[in-house]
Design goal:
single chain, 2 domains, eight-stranded mixed β-sheet, 14 helices
Length: 381
């Protein structure tokens, strides 16, 4: 209802919000990671990693330069702080269980302890959890510092580290707290993939399949034809896939950083997947396992709505299965479809009582739509 008692209205017009950087530079390397150049900076840096990456053989020459200062605790996160010259290093425990506001604040606290300014840098060395929380810490540190990434997982290289989505989990909900805040630079060393545990490697490849389904039939067919090379982690094959995915995502986020339209396509499989990830218990399943299952449910919903053919549905399901992903309607990790639906309703992308999902008419034929509860529940049967 209009209020007719207004005396005067003043309108403030804003320029586009500063998001940490005007551009992101993605640098690809075909060598072992030599990160010493990151230390040769006029700006201070707070490096952020986890206990697993800290002990990675390929990165010991870099981390070995730092000396331990103290063990600390912020809320539920225990972490260690190191220093080298003017730079700091935060080492937090590994895993989704530590993608929390406490971990974010431990990074902020270390920035304060090292007297970082807005012009200084927070640098994540790790997978998607670390890039997400480090960039979020940078976004809220003194209302916006800078960040950069050295992604160490396939998932981070093809998806999580690119495009500025940051955040942490809260109250059992995935990435419900966060901001859009892209890194100014990414330093990508595909050789790091060779050291990943098998489960983490397969997790990351789900995002690569998603990107191919959305944007490039040739890449999708290339993945199917080169399954054995992919599973054996053939460097040349993986490099082609990593660079394809990075370029595809870069084109999308350049057009739509804050997910107002076309960037929503990148959520294929994620509305179903995030719900499963939350309900199963954050950290029980990998993000990629959940996304792959979510893709299977999205193409099922597409089939139920008559958007895609049964041939396309079967092709996607068989491809997912061939890489070892779970595609059954009821996932073994969590079987209550009504709870899955309830969690999907809480997804941050929804704007009505229906559930917003990304569906497909076929390869690269994508549909952003809102779907009724009945279709969601039928896709979970």
């Amino acid at each position: 209802m209009k209020n007719n008692n207004i005396l005067e209205t003043l309108i403030i017009k804003y320029k586009p919000l500063f998001v940490g950087t005007k551009k992101s530079n993605l640098n690809f390397y075909n060598t072992n990671p030599d990160l010493d150049f990151l230390l040769d900076s006029k700006h201070k840096k707070i490096f952020v990693t986890d206990t697993t990456i800290f002990n990675l053989e390929l990165l010991k020459p870099f981390f070995g330069k730092f000396s331990k200062i103290a063990d600390k605790k912020t809320g539920g996160t225990d972490y260690s702080v190191y220093s080298y010259d003017k730079h700091g290093l935060v080492v937090i425990p590994q895993g989704e269980a530590f993608k929390t506001m406490d971990s974010v604040l431990s990074i902020v606290k270390t920035g304060l302890d090292f007297n970082l300014t807005r012009k200084d840098n927070f640098t994540a060395i790790g997978g998607g959890v670390l890039t997400d929380i480090t960039a979020f810490a940078a976004s809220i540190y003194k209302r916006g510092a800078c960040c950069e990434f050295v992604p160490t997982t396939l998932l981070a290289m093809v998806d999580a580290a690119i495009g500025g989505k940051t955040g942490c989990d809260f109250d059992d909900y995935k990435n419900v707290v966060g901001a859009f805040f892209p890194a100014k630079a990414l330093y990508i060393y595909p050789v790091l993939i060779q050291s990943l545990p098998e489960k983490e490697f397969i997790s990351g490849f789900a995002e690569a399949i998603k990107t191919a389904l959305l944007f490039d039939k040739k890449c999708y067919e290339y993945m199917k034809a080169n399954k054995d090379k992919i599973l054996k982690r053939d460097p040349e094959t993986l490099y082609k896939i990593i660079t394809f995915c990075a370029k595809a995502k870069a084109k999308i986020v350049e057009k739509d950083l804050s997910e107002k339209n076309i960037r929503m396509l990148l959520n294929l499989g994620h509305t179903f997947g995030h719900a499963l990830e939350s309900r199963a218990g954050l950290g029980v399943l990998t993000h990629g396992e959940c996304v792959a299952w979510g893709i299977s449910r999205s193409v099922k919903a597409s089939l139920l709505l008559g958007l895609c053919s049964e041939e396309y549905y079967n092709d996607v399901i068989n491809t997912l299965k061939s890489f070892g992903y779970e595609t059954s309607a009821v996932h073994p990790a969590f079987s209550d479809s009504k709870e899955i639906l309830k969690t999907m309703h809480n997804d941050k992308k929804n704007s009505s009582s229906n559930v917003r999902v990304i569906l497909q008419k076929g390869i690269c034929k994508n549909v952003i739509t809102e779907t009724t509860e009945d279709i969601i529940l039928d896709a979970l049967k």
